[in-house]
Design goal:
The longest helix has 34 residues. The protein contains 10 helices and no strands. It is mostly helical. The chain is globular.
Length: 248
């Protein structure tokens, strides 16, 4: 039964650490590829690079993963997600104006239409699913997206809803980075670039890089940056293609 305004919160750990286990289970649920996030519709530039002959095997897929994490997510999506989470954690529903401002900032600085549309679609899906699961703030923000035309960008929504569940900052970092890598590896599998075992090796190889990134404080939202022009070009070249498997 849909209960959009029912409380749905992961409790903090008690003296025996039971909340830790519940929080961990929540993170595993939300980060699992089985969770209906809509992410499998996107290749994050991989399809375009394959069609242009720039990616043909596991090593190139690994380079793409590293570029996404180090050159784009670290300086753009991550700080927006953490700023949104911090706003909710510190001020609760009173932070919605701040979250709205972050959402509009993400829209203004997301210059490539492919990335911008993907972020909006995935953010909307996250809001809808978590609202259906009973997270009240997800329903509230979903209503604002529908009524006021807010963008509802993915990193801002991730910070808002994961913060509302009480998930830790490091847990949110790990979920977002891991989810991005899993989506790209899944796209590589579907395009026949790698096999299942190679995909698992690639995910394992990204861990040190992800750990290094999330061990450093995210930049402030006044210092957002994106240093991956090859990915931007791949996304732009994907837009006019008539025959394609993925949305970006």
């Amino acid at each position: 039964m849909n209960a959009p305004y029912a409380p749905f919160h992961l409790p903090p750990p008690d003296d025996e650490g039971r909340g830790d286990a519940i929080g961990m289970l929540g993170m595993l649920q939300f980060a699992d590829s089985f969770f209906p996030s809509g992410a499998t519709s996107f290749s994050w530039g991989l399809e375009s690079l394959k069609l242009d002959g720039k990616v043909g095997g596991a090593e190139q897929v690994f380079e793409l993963l590293c570029s996404h994490i180090e050159q784009r997510w670290a300086g753009f999506d991550r700080p927006l997600m953490q700023a949104s989470r911090t706003a909710w954690t510190q001020r609760g529903a009173a932070a919605l104006a701040d979250v709205t401002g972050l959402d509009r900032l993400c829209e203004a600085m997301n210059l490539v239409r492919g990335w911008r549309d993907a972020s909006r679609r995935l953010g909307f899906t996250q809001l809808r699913v978590h609202a259906d699961l009973g997270l009240g703030i997800a329903q509230v923000y979903l209503d604002q997206v529908r009524a006021a035309g807010l963008p509802g960008h993915l990193p801002v929504v991730q910070g808002l809803v994961w913060g509302a569940y009480g998930l830790s900052a490091s847990g949110c970092d790990a979920m977002a980075a891991s989810g991005l890598c899993t989506t790209v590896v899944g796209a590589a599998l579907r395009m026949g670039l790698i096999g299942h075992t190679e995909g698992q090796r690639l995910l394992a190889r990204t861990r040190p890089l992800i750990a290094r990134v999330i061990d450093t404080p995210p930049p402030s939202t006044d210092e957002l940056w994106n240093g991956a022009p090859a990915l931007d070009i791949a996304a732009m070249r994907h837009e006019p293609r008539s025959a394609r498997l993925f949305a970006n």
